[in-house]
């Protein structure tokens, strides 16, 4: 989905959270999309490491669950500037666009408000 955007190029993919931290160090992307449910080191743990070393890189959290207020708060405290559910595909692209404009994008589940 992200590769279909004409102005974006996916420069790397990680197999787990620790791999994501290492690849960000090596690839220096403009933005990183991290899955909450990654093995070895989940998305929140990986984000904390990445944010410590590279606070300028916008991070967006991708999750299979709905984004509750609690999850959004946890994500923001870990260094994420956005969070979206995988079930809402177009919001993933909207979230990436927002982060690239230096905005935040937390797509909250309507029932969690």
Brief rundown of the structure:
This protein is an alpha/beta fold. 39% of the residues lie in helices and 13% in strands. It has a four-stranded parallel sheet with strand order 1-2-3-4.
Descriptive notes:
- The chain has about 110 residues and is an alpha/beta fold.
- It has a single domain (about 15-110), classed as 3-Layer(aba) Sandwich (Rossmann fold), CATH 3.40.50.2300.
- Helix content is about 40%, strand content about 15%.
- The chain has helices spanning about 15-25, 45-55, 70-80, 90-100, and strands at about 30-35, 60-65, 80-85, 105.
- The chain has a 4-stranded parallel β-sheet.
- Strand 3, helix 4 (about 90-100) and strand 4 form a beta-alpha-beta unit.
- The longest helix has 12 residues, at about 90-100.
- It starts with 16 loop residues before the first helix and ends in a 7-residue tail after the last strand.
- The mean pLDDT is about 90.
Largest sheet data? 4 strands, parallel
> Which residues sit in consecutive blocks of at least 5 with pLDDT less than 50?
none
The topology string of helices and strands comes to HEHEHEHE
Overall geometric form: globular
Number of domains: 1
Report how far apart the termini are.
28 Å
CATH architecture: 3-Layer(aba) Sandwich
Strand content: 5-15%
Number of strands: 4
**Portion in helices:** 25-40%
């Amino acid at each position: 989905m992200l590769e279909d955007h004409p102005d974006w190029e996916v420069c790397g993919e990680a197999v787990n959270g620790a791999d994501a931290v290492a690849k960000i160090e090596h690839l220096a992307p403009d933005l990183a999309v991290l899955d909450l449910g990654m093995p070895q080191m989940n998305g929140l743990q990986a984000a904390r490491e990445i944010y410590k070393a590279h606070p300028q890189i916008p991070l967006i959290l991708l999750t299979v669950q709905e984004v509750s207020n609690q999850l959004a708060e946890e994500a923001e405290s870990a260094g994420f500037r956005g969070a979206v559910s995988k079930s809402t595909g177009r919001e993933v692209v909207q979230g990436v666009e927002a982060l690239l404009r230096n905005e935040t994008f937390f797509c909250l589940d309507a029932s969690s408000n």
